[in-house]
Fold this protein.
Amino acid sequence: MTTDPSAPFTGGEAEGGARLVVLASGRGSNLQAILDAVAAGRLDARVVLVVSNVADAGALERARRAGVATALVEAPPPAPGEDRRAARRAYDRRLAEVVARAAPDWVVLAGWMRILSSAFLDRFPDRVVNLHPA
């Protein structure tokens, strides 16, 4: 099957396009590309929430300027003697709760600098997309 590369991607998951939650840790250049594609009609979607684990991430400011809701979910360092894997799973469960409240069709990792465990991924099976520059 051949598709027209100039045609917009159609999510079709919901009226107004697919509901995207974007997770970003940095400047937000990938987020901006998504926002621009939505605004230009090349992506049939809407960004309903941007989440960062970094308080001063540029992505949060880009989202605010675009009128998109934001959330900060910082990962505290493990307590002395705390199992790092258990701490990661606890963080990922908390993150998943925040994301789930936005009822996303897709979760987009756009410069997200944390490895997500099954505690997060199992909440959104086959709905997490990782944008990676490599």
